[in-house]
Amino acid sequence: MSSEKTTLIYVTYIASTAEKVFGAITRPEISKQYWGHENVSDWQAGSDWAHVRDNDEHTVNLVGKVVEIAPPRRLVVSWANHSQKDDPTAYSRVTFEIEDYDEMVRLTVTHDDLVAGSGMHLGVSKGWPIVLSSMKSFLETGRGLDIFAKPKAA
User: 151 pLDDT band (50/70/90 cuts)?
Assistant: First the structure.
């Protein structure tokens, strides 16, 4: 596999406030409602964070560190599969930037330092669009999407 790095950038506009969007990312009781996972941390720079599946097993899927935090505008975390937590080369980085935009906010998610063609690259390129759509739906309507849905057979 190549060690070439790549970056994915997603932008969405949400009829909400910066505080509510930031809370949707950082508050486990909210993230589980649209993501199916709880983002767990004390949200201090340098602290650990974990992406914990909202199921009976509470499976830890992703881990990392809080690299930078400036509520409610910016959050940067390192990001790796839990199974690769001891491999420093397995980590990528996710930056959440939240800007006021008229009567809404613009959320930009930049996932960089990804190994091009890796399982993580392929997984998040499919995952981020539905997760961000679900967050938008949840914040605007109170109901998230089924992020585990599969395409219907033709």
Answer: confident
